[in-house]
Amino acid sequence: MAKKLIKVMDTSFRDGFQSVYGARVFVDDFIPALQSAVAAGIKHFEVAGGARFQSPIFYCNENAFETMDKIRAAVGPDINLQSLARGVNVVGLDSQPRGIINLHAKMFKKHGITTVRNFDALNDVNNLIYSGQCIKDNGLKHEVTITMMELPIGCTGAHDVDFYEKVLRNILDAGIPFDSLAFKDASGTSSPRKVYETIKRTREILGEDIHIRFHSHETAGTGLAAYLAALDGGADGIDLSMKPVSGGTAQPDIVSMWHALKGTEYDLGIDIEKILETEEVFKDCMKDYFLPPEALAVNPMIIQSPLPGGALTANTQMLRDNGIMDKYPEIVAAMKEVVEKGGFGTSVTPVSQFYFQQAFNNVMFGKWKKIAEGYGKMVLGYFGKTPCEPDSEVVKLASEQLKLQPTTECVVDINDKDPNKGIEAARKMLKEAGLEETEENIFIAAACKEKGILFLEGKGTIGVRKCEEKAEASETSSNSYTVTINGKKYAVALEGEKATVNGKLYDFSIKTGIEAKQAVGGEGTPVKAALPGTVLKVLVEEGDSIEEGDVLAVVEAMKMETEIKSPVGGTVQSVEIEVGNHVQTGQILVTVA
Fold first, then answer.
1. Are 23 and 52 in contact (CB under 8 A)?
2. What is the tens place of the pLDDT at every residue in 556-565?
3. How far apart are the C-alpha atoms of 470 and 268, rounded to whole Å?
4. Domain that holds residue 309
5. Does residue 407 lie in a domain region?
6. pTM value?
7. pLDDT tens, position by position, 385-407
8. How far apart are CA 399 and CA 20, in angstroms?
């Protein structure tokens, strides 16, 4: 009897990277492994979107569109390259108006993508209608997606088989065009039996011709069992990864899955010897990267506080960057209440990040003392309708703190009216920075905001963690050097407390981090950082007259922008920070006299 051929998408080079390295990987480092995987016979890869759009820009100082071009050139024209989109949020944490949603599909098609997996974390089908149509209109294949998870222990109200059937029927009733359907469990918490029953019922509704794919993670230790259940329920395809980015917070390993299917009616259609060879190539490519210990660990606590693999390491990397990794266990424990009171949106980006940000705030500032903007907007309806009604007291706090009223208006309609969003707003940002108004730059400005502008201005930074920094310096004069970092050469000239790097002058007398200079002498009120972060905006200068409550600066931490407000009125005596500086808790930012 012929076995059923199961179609495999290799997620190593997108979800694997996000789940293990927080998506902080240089494109040239993994191209040999990608080419080896193609030579081994794999024809379908997830390589773009999700955090692999922002992270190259934020942490690798690489243009995400250029990385996509390199990947397409490396694999040739016939390989199915897939990206991940978040409905009306496309590839960011913030939702977008129609113009940017359509530009997303246009640019990803232009830069080599074949298929877009498109999901909404709230399973609000209204957020998939326009985004799905744009994907199809721009010549891409559309994989419409239903997001899954298990509710925290003791919770009820959504995320059961009936709930997923309702979402599916809403997709069909809305007439959204799609080429395949995926179930995406980013936290890996769905019980195998629920996966089986959900896909079995979906197959009965859709018939035999629609391709159904299942995606999960091994974070809770049940990923492989869930994959077997999905196949028994009628799934046609599954997502798998390769060492060193498989297992733990990532997808099950392709070799492990092949082994688990021995003696069954299913066949992955792979040459296992070539896959094993490719894994060795891949491990060699990644040998210098720091492997977070939590990335490959099974963590049963995730069943109680569903945190996706992709968000887990992205957040722990940020905690490490800010020197507060010791807070991680408390933050994860705090997620249960945040999920329960937030209306049970699926713990997948951007909602997983909202959950983590709110749990972070509850730990750092006290329970519900500071509502994270994304979380607050979610419970107020600005990202769509949550599966269940959020806690009324949390909604009230969000409304008071964010100064927003709850809404049921369609998300894209809200955003179309927002002058701070959209193509024209992005053009304005580019013009003010003196940057070229290409469609790629417009999208980067819209999706990455101030950090995208800094990158385009040539002020991007490197935040990639490697075990040993590959740096070689050769002295060319008493104060001039050629420095090679990750294959890129920099001409560095030092003079006093100034440095010229590739022709650009930097003054490093302005210290950052724990060495930051303190306030100058004289009477004044110091305004200090409440938590570590990166300075995105400085809105005052020495000598400015300000009122109590005026915003002095904006600091970003854990993907949250925090306004630094003056506690008093007066005159700005000193400004101790510049855009791009990294600040620590308690560091003086501005002094007001």
1. yes
2. 765 667 788 8
3. 38
4. 4-357
5. no
6. 0.84
7. 999 999 999 999 999 999 999 99
8. 36
